[in-house]
Automatic annotation (TrEMBL):
Major subcellular site: cytoplasm
Keyword annotations of the record: Cytoplasm, Cytoskeleton, Dynein, Microtubule, Motor protein
Organism this protein belongs to: Thlaspi arvense (Field penny-cress)
Protein name according to UniProt: Dynein light chain
InterPro entries linked: DLC_sf, Dynein_light_chain_typ-1/2
GO biological process, one term: microtubule-based process
Example GO molecular function: dynein intermediate chain binding
Magnesium in keyword set: no
Length: 93
């Protein structure tokens, strides 16, 4: 388990939600192969949808670019081990 080893790069999430994001990511890495980024992302998204309501998005990988609009207070980008994690709730238009 890599819990406590995450490094936040950017966020506007409340601290408690940040801690949960990193904890969920760490525990998810114990469930899936580190190369199965799609399953890791799907599991984290499901956890966030269950805890905080639907509409969450999750991107996991070691090399990706992105451009998105998110709801205020719902964005975090961090790395844990060799993977980067981007979690956010999409903005309602």
């Amino acid at each position: 388990m890599l819990e406590g080893k995450a490094k936040v790069e950017e966020t506007d999430m409340p601290v408690k939600m940040q801690m949960q994001a990193m904890s969920i990511a760490s525990k998810t890495l114990d469930l899936f192969d580190v190369f199965d980024c799609q399953s890791i992302a799907a599991h984290i998204k499901k956890e966030f949808d269950e805890r905080y309501g639907s509409g969450w998005q999750c991107v996991v990988g070691s090399n990706f670019g992105c451009f998105f609009t998110h709801s205020k207070g719902t964005f975090i980008y961090f790395h844990l081990g060799t993977l980067n994690f981007l979690i956010f709730k999409g903005a309602a238009l």
